[in-house]
TrEMBL record:
Coiled coil: none annotated. SUPFAM superfamilies: Restriction endonuclease-like (SSF52980). Residues 21-193 form the Putative restriction endonuclease domain. This is Endonuclease, Uma2 family (Restriction endonuclease fold). The keyword Magnesium does not apply. It comes from Dyadobacter psychrophilus. PANTHER family: SLL0198 PROTEIN, SLL0198 PROTEIN-RELATED.
């Protein structure tokens, strides 16, 4: 079977047959799988990313983390292994995300230990070759609709970036030879994608 022709993710249309707690337990029992759930309760099987895209994403995560630490920005930074329950009921695991400290501290320990019921203020998704661009674009809009303030979709495969923010049209940049600014969530933060791509 030629798996190179399979576009990820794969959605199993099961409907809303599991509660939030049941889906959390299902994910723990199948912890070798990358799972999400859409707002209708359907289970989404995600593909592990390729090594090149994984390294690229990790470099971005490190850049964001170092800047947040050096500027003493209070909040929690998360990688792709973290799930969040959005206000619309979907469970998503962004590649990189950040939640302000005051929001994180307002959550109960039980909520923190599961898929926290919050939409991160800042999100980055990195597209690899097997990912459906349309699916990721819909996902980015879902983040904005559920309260995310700034979201970047970085298409590592076709070398383009889509910038989403509250109250503005989606901005498309057809190059990775750029610097992205963190306004309004992280004023002063600049992510030099060209330097990361060449590293």
């Amino acid at each position: 079977m030629d798996t190179s022709l399979i576009t990820m993710p794969v959605t199993f249309k099961v409907g809303d047959i599991m509660s939030e707690d049941e889906f959390f337990r299902f994910c723990q029992m199948n912890d070798t799988l990358n799972l999400e759930r859409d707002k209708n309760g359907n289970i989404i099987f995600m593909s592990p990313t390729g090594s090149s895209t994984g390294s690229f994403t990790t470099d971005i995560l490190l850049e964001v983390g170092v800047w947040l630490s050096s500027h003493k920005i209070a909040g929690k930074l998360f990688d792709s292994s973290t799930g969040f329950t959005l206000p619309n009921g979907a469970v998503r695991s962004p590649d990189i995300s950040w939640v302000p400290r005051e929001i994180w501290d307002s959550l109960s320990k039980k909520d923190r230990d599961r898929f926290a019921p919050v939409c991160p203020n800042f999100i980055i998704e990195v597209r690899s070759k097997s990912d459906s661009l349309r699916y990721l674009q819909d996902k980015m809009q879902e983040y904005i609709d559920n309260g995310c303030q700034l979201a970047w979709l970085i298409d590592h495969f076709k070398e383009q970036v889509f910038i989403y923010s509250q109250g503005t049209e989606v901005r498309t940049i057809r190059s990775l030879d750029i610097q992205l600014t963190g306004d309004p969530v992280f004023p002063g933060f600049i992510l030099d994608l060209s330097a990361i791509e060449k590293s």
